[in-house]
Design goal:
The protein is an alpha+beta fold and 186 residues long. The protein has a three-stranded mixed sheet, sandwiched between helices. Helix 2 crosses helix 3 and helix 4 crosses helix 5.
């Protein structure tokens, strides 16, 4: 092979290498975002929505968004319980509005969790104690314990606590009267 032919072959190989590199970068950029990236985006969308809402309502609060497990979480750090409402009713409505804002922008349903003024964390601790009392009652007398109606977040906390204690629980009834029944392991 002549020097001219070798140079042409080297140039051709260099061009192929560059084309392969460009194709690889394009494929990476076109790849679907990771689940973590999707959750971070959900949290950002909800935080932006809440920031506008706080401004409109002239309410103070700092926003913190993070992911935990398979959910985006947004917390409004404030001393005010205005956005919590009675029994967390305003909080539940705000959470649904945030989920709708995320769905509007992303086109997919979100399981985002919203907390305001630490309400959910306080409620989680109360529910874990309630679940432990029900577990103790079932263990003492063997009879199922029917708890008061709860929202889905509250029922999930109780189900998790009951399962961790080695007992069985199920939900019964229709919203808004849906409740958890704790019973001995099956």
């Amino acid at each position: 092979m002549s020097d001219e032919q070798q140079s042409a072959a080297d140039v051709e190989q260099a061009v192929k290498d560059v084309v392969d590199d460009v194709a690889e970068v394009a494929a990476e950029e076109a790849a679907e975002p990771s689940e973590e990236d999707i959750l971070v985006k959900e949290g950002d969308i909800a935080a932006d929505y809440l920031e506008e809402l706080l401004d409109i309502a002239d309410l103070d609060g700092d926003l913190d968004s993070y992911t935990e497990g398979d959910r985006a979480h947004v917390s409004v750090v404030t001393d005010s319980t205005t956005l919590v409402g009675r029994d967390g009713e305003v909080l539940e409505a705000l959470q649904e509005l945030c989920r709708l804002a995320v769905m509007t922008e992303t086109g997919r349903r979100s399981r985002l969790m919203l907390d305001v003024a630490g309400h959910r964390e306080k409620r989680r601790k109360e529910l874990q104690l309630l679940a432990q009392d029900a577990v103790n009652s079932v263990n003492e007398n063997g009879e199922p314990v029917r708890l008061a109606p709860m929202n889905p977040f509250e029922r999930k906390v109780v189900h998790d606590a009951v399962a961790a204690a080695g007992l069985y629980s199920e939900s019964e009834g229709q919203e808004p009267q849906r409740r958890v029944v704790v019973q001995a392991a099956k």
